């Protein structure tokens, strides 16, 4: 996996949305295949602008299924995803969609258990309550998604797929 090339691609995708990055921000773009060895199918590229004890702001490119559990007195992370470019198929808890546009990767059905699909196009957004299972997949042309949330505690995230490891490819 060429991490530098993936960072450049992410920065280019963000620039196409009018999101300009500094050289330091581009270098800070996180790239991970989540330990699954299939970056193009199940990887994650993200840039965290700020993450403190009150709030968090990120740009995301692809996200696997997971939830953010309660931690101490906190109910868990609440997220709002806003589609900037492309199309995103967001799956959340609820009645399964009869003919979803997105599908779990082959051989992963047992881990992708929430099947209520919402389609987000540029300018549309959706807020996920804390401790809610969710996953999403970009449309065929890729997507850029901004995330606005309460504090992000990635090390506490619970992934349905026990093979997932939330580590960066180069860190």
Question: Quick gist of this model?
Answer:
This protein has helices at residues 3-15, 23-27, 39-42, and strands at residues 30-32, 44-51, 56-61, 63-67, 79-92, 116-120, 125-128, 134-149, 158-159.
Explain how this protein is built.
- By secondary structure, the chain is mainly beta.
- The chain has a single domain (3-159), classed as Jelly Rolls.
- It is built from 3 helices and 9 strands; from the N terminus they run ααβαββββββββ.
- Strands 1, 2, 3, 4, 5, 6, 7, 8 and 9 form a 9-stranded antiparallel sheet that branches.
- The model has no long low-confidence stretch (mean pLDDT 85).
CATH topology call: Jelly Rolls
How many separate domains? Answer: 1
Oligomer: single chain
The CATH superfamily label reads Jelly Rolls
Low-confidence stretches: none
Q: Structural class of the secondary elements?
A: mainly beta
> Largest sheet at a glance?
9 strands, antiparallel
The topology string of helices and strands comes to HHEHEEEEEEEE
Q: What is the β-strand count?
A: 9
Q: Calculate the mean pLDDT score and round it.
A: 85
Shape: globular
| CATH secondary-structure class | Mainly Beta
CATH architecture: Sandwich
Radius of gyration: 15 Å
How many DSSP H or I helices? 3
Helix content: 10-25%
Distance between the termini: 13 Å
Strand content: 35-45%
Which descriptors apply to this entry?
about 170 residues, mainly beta, Jelly Rolls, 3 helices
Would you spell out the secondary-structure blueprint of this structure?
Elements: H1 3-15, H2 23-27, E1 30-32, H3 39-42, E2 44-51, E3 56-61, E4 63-67, E5 79-92, E6 116-120, E7 125-128, E8 134-149, E9 158-159
Antiparallel strand pairs: 1-2, 2-3, 3-8, 4-8, 4-9, 5-6, 5-7, 5-8
